[in-house]
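Lecture 7 notes: from sequence to structure.

We start with a single chain of 228 residues. Read the sequence below before looking at the structure.
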Amino acid sequence: MKSFTLAEKFLLLIHHPEKSRYLITEQMRNTGLIGALLLDLAHEKKIRLEADSMWATSHQTNLSPVHQQILARIAAYGRPKKVKFWISKLSNKSRTYRHALLARLEKKGILSVEHKKFLFISYLNTYLLDQQKRYTLLQDIRAVIFEKKEIRADDAALLGLIEACKMHKVICEDKSEIKYCKARLKALVQEDAIAQGVDKVIKEIQAALIAAMVATTAASTATTAASN
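Now the structure, written as tokens:
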């Protein structure tokens, strides 16, 4: 699936094969998407990571208009910043980025997008039209994990993203597979670290997810305490 960016593969993989919904939480979806977009740019050598900091090495990319928007924001900032800074900052517009990428997938005939509104709130209903594309992607991933197929650079990026977002249930069929998958992915990420420090983005996604979960739990606890 060379015609798809990592960000598009991510959205395709987490989309329910039959229903208009996703298979992971909103927090993981938003953070994972930003991570995928940054990994795309890093793979194209449009951004560089060093000593836990990231900066733009170019002002132009042909990956997609969304990638161009993100690259322009990073380039305009000027000085290097922590990866977690950009994940946090860009996550505020993850919904906008996701909608733009869904529109690209619609043009490719992969899914349909229905624009809806409820009480003046706009939202999208999306349905997969080409389920075979998702199935092929899923089987390729499973082949690397369970059949130990040779891993490629783009496989490493996607597998790292799956590990970071804890998407084991998305690609596994039962509990026994999940247990093996977790161990296998952890080993693969360590053995096949993405070139030139791009694996740091994956680590920052994990850190961002943990921070978001802690914040959500704290807010829920505070609300419960206030109501008692």
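The chain is about 60% helix and 10% strand. Keep this in mind for problem set 3.
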